[in-house]
């Protein structure tokens, strides 16, 4: 049975579930059901929704050259990634730069355009118009500094790129300004959010109970009883 996006999905099916105790239902109020099944390795498994392609991703293109971080022999670079989600119409711009020093403070300079502004007190040129500044925080476990900016999707930004450059404190740059500037990075043009997937009205899951069905095998890790639509439920 092909359950990949675009696949035919399962054939229609139905079954009756007898209740252990009587359940009084007036036929008017909303009815919420929680379906559960046995799974051998634990955890909840959504089963009736199509969640693929729910986010549009974008990276960008590096440009220019950065300064070499003192004592590392490595040029400081930065990079970004867009994540545009239809859920809540949110956009997120992730920014990371490195290498940075152990005690360094690092910021990202964001601009609406590229630049090439040299100054004798700087170890390298300013490569962005620097219209906004965002702290990236301290050094992480991989020797880089990173952050993410989340905001509501803005149609006015469609097709525009953001130009990013990082600056990190570097005492070894003395007698110049003790900052090492990274190379520049131009994001991919800001994309429109993808169409929202047809999330189902019902939530069907497979949950670890501790045993498998008598005489049978546990469900597979990815169980989908219905692809991209609510499961009709009747009470009789």
Highlighted features:
elongated, single chain, 0% helix
Explain this structure.
The chain is mainly beta and 236 residues long. It contains no helices and 13 strands. The strands form four sheets. The chain has a five-stranded antiparallel beta sheet, with no helix packed on it. It is elongated. It starts with 44 loop residues before the first strand and ends in a 30-residue tail after the last strand. The model is unreliable at 44-53, 198-213 and 217-230 (pLDDT under 50).
Tally of DSSP helical segments: 0
Low-confidence stretches: 44-53, 198-213, 217-230
Strand content: 25-35%
Number of strands: 13
Largest sheet: 5 strands, antiparallel
Strand order of the largest sheet: 3-12-11-6-9
From N to C, what is the helix and strand string?
A: EEEEEEEEEEEEE
**Helical percentage:** under 10%
Q: If you average the pLDDT, what whole number results?
A: 76
Indicate the overall shape: elongated
Classification by helices and strands: mainly beta
What distance separates the N and C termini? Answer: 31 Å
**Roughly how many Å is the radius of gyration?**
26 Å
């Amino acid at each position: 049975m092909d359950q990949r996006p675009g696949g035919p999905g399962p054939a229609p099916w139905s079954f009756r579930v007898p209740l252990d105790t009587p359940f009084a239902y007036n036929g008017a109020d909303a009815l919420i059901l929680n379906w559960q099944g046995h799974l051998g390795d634990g955890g909840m498994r959504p089963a009736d929704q199509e969640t693929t392609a729910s986010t549009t991703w974008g990276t960008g293109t590096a440009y220019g050259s950065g300064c070499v971080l003192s004592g590392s022999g490595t040029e400081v670079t930065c990079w970004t990634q867009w994540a545009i989600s239809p859920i809540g119409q949110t956009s997120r711009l992730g920014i990371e730069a490195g290498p940075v020093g152990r005690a360094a403070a690092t910021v990202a300079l964001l601009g609406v355009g590229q630049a090439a502004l040299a100054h004798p007190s700087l170890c390298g040129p300013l490569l962005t118009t620097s219209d906004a500044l965002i702290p990236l925080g301290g050094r992480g476990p991989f020797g880089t500094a990173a952050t993410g900016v989340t905001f509501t999707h803005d149609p006015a930004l469609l097709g525009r790129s953001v130009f990013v450059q990082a600056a990190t404190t570097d005492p070894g740059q003395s007698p110049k300004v003790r900052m090492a500037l990274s190379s520049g990075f131009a994001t991919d043009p800001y994309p429109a959010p993808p169409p929202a997937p047809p999330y189902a009205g019902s939530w069907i899951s497979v949950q670890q109970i501790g045993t498998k069905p008598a005489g049978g095998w546990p469900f597979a890790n990815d169980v989908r009883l219905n692809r991209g639509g609510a499961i009709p439920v009747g009470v009789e």
